[in-house]
Write a structure and sequence with these properties.
The chain has 115 residues and is mostly helical. It is built from four helices and no strands. Helix 1 packs antiparallel against helix 2.
Length: 115
Amino acid sequence: MSMDATRAVAARDALLAERAKMLAELGAELDAPEQMTYGSQAAAASQVFAQQRDLALRDAAERRIREVDAALGRLDAGTFGRCATCGGEIAAARLEALPWAALCIDCQRGSGPGR
């Protein structure tokens, strides 16, 4: 079953909006490391935590951009909305919530850690 043109346009718009959001997050510069001063372990720990948090957020944004780009590729190829594992249809509600989803909910559950 093929996705109708209206749903395809809405999916593309949602994907492009998500991509722009993630690119904006990546565009926000990470805080430059401040000079470490001796004597304040709490301040140093806070600084390290903030840097690690910023790096984790950057990694998540980069990963989401890759997922969105892959979904745009599936949209162009005519396979958007089909599970990459089983080939079944991905529920419309799932695609509304996560337009970059490549797997149906059953396959996603089966691809969890340790499986």
